[in-house]
């Protein structure tokens, strides 16, 4: 503690220390102010560089439209009718009902089985619909919804060959010509279980049934529901393994990962559709 004696020239000493005290206070104030400015600059910089969080459900509601990715080649779930240039089918009706329940418009975006996942990840559509199989492999990259329909792999053959193909082994022969579409679970199944057969990958799924009927192929591996539809449309064809399917699977809808609010909404919507019997109505309309 400094004690000033004003009688012995203390006033001079006081003024001398007063100058240093004021200088010290100014220095401390400037330092604090600089720290505050740096802190504010850092905060502003962090805000400027913070990635924008876009919640998909919010964006769909904001834009007033949901984009549905669909292949248009997989009856009875998704089919691009060349006469009307409109999509139709079980999942097309479901997509329109989904959009209505969201209170938005629906926009269909064409994709393909080989490009389905890439198009989803490239944000070309919000949700994939149209006979998509729930698989562990797809779940690694995307998010697959609750199931809405059970099914299994079957085979489409000519009526005259229905007693010829009663097992996988019957089809897994070098002389058996198998047609399959690329990029999906049908191709994967064929390559795993029919390695000895004569396999041809056909780009357009819709081209395969008439090729079987005309004798170009002996077998088309597809989901039993699709086989049933084609057998109804062409009396030359027969749906093999219709009830005792070669696999047991479920269909679901495909979404991007890390969009929990959208996932929750879609899954609850599926529950509501089941609860209210809407999927049963769609099944009666398009499958039975």
UniProtKB/TrEMBL annotation:
Gene3D superfamilies in the cross-refs: Periplasmic binding protein-like II (3.40.190.10)
SUPFAM superfamilies: Periplasmic binding protein-like II (SSF53850)
Keyword Glycoprotein part of the UniProt annotation: no
Domain Solute-binding protein family 3/N-terminal: residue ranges: 65-288
SMART domains: PBPb
Top-level lineage group: Bacteria
Keywords in alphabetical order: Lipoprotein, Palmitate, Signal
Designated name of the protein: Transporter substrate-binding domain-containing protein
Organism of derivation: Siminovitchia acidinfaciens
């Amino acid at each position: 503690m400094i004690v000033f004696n004003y009688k012995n020239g203390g006033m001079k000493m006081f003024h001398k220390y007063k100058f240093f005290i004021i200088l010290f206070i100014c220095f401390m104030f400037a330092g604090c102010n600089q720290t505050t400015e740096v802190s504010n600059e850092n905060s502003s910089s962090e805000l400027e560089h913070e990635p924008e969080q876009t919640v998909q459900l919010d964006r769909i509601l904001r834009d007033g439209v949901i984009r549905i990715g669909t292949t248009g080649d997989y009856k009875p779930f998704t089919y691009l009718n060349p006469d009307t240039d409109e999509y139709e089918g079980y999942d097309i009706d479901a997509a329109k009902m989904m959009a209505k329940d969201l209170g938005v418009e629906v926009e269909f975006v064409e994709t393909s089985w080989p490009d389905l996942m890439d198009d989803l990840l490239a944000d070309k559509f919000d949700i994939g619909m149209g006979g998509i199989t729930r698989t562990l492999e797809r779940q690694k990259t995307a998010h697959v919804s609750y199931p809405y329909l059970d099914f299994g792999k079957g085979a489409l053959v000519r009526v005259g060959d229905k007693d010829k193909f009663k097992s996988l082994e019957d089809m897994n022969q070098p002389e058996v010509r198998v047609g399959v579409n690329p990029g999906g679970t049908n191709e994967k199944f064929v390559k795993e279980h029919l390695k000895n057969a004569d396999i041809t990958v056909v780009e357009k799924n819709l081209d395969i049934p008439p090729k079987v009927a005309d004798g170009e192929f002996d077998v088309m591996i597809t989901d039993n529901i699709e086989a049933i539809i084609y057998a109804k449309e062409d009396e030359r064809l027969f749906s093999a393994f219709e009830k005792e399917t070669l696999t047991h699977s479920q269909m679901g809808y495909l979404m991007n990962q890390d969009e929990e609010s959208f996932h929750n909404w879609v899954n609850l919507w599926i529950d509501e559709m089941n609860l209210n019997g809407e999927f049963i109505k769609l099944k009666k309309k398009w499958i039975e």
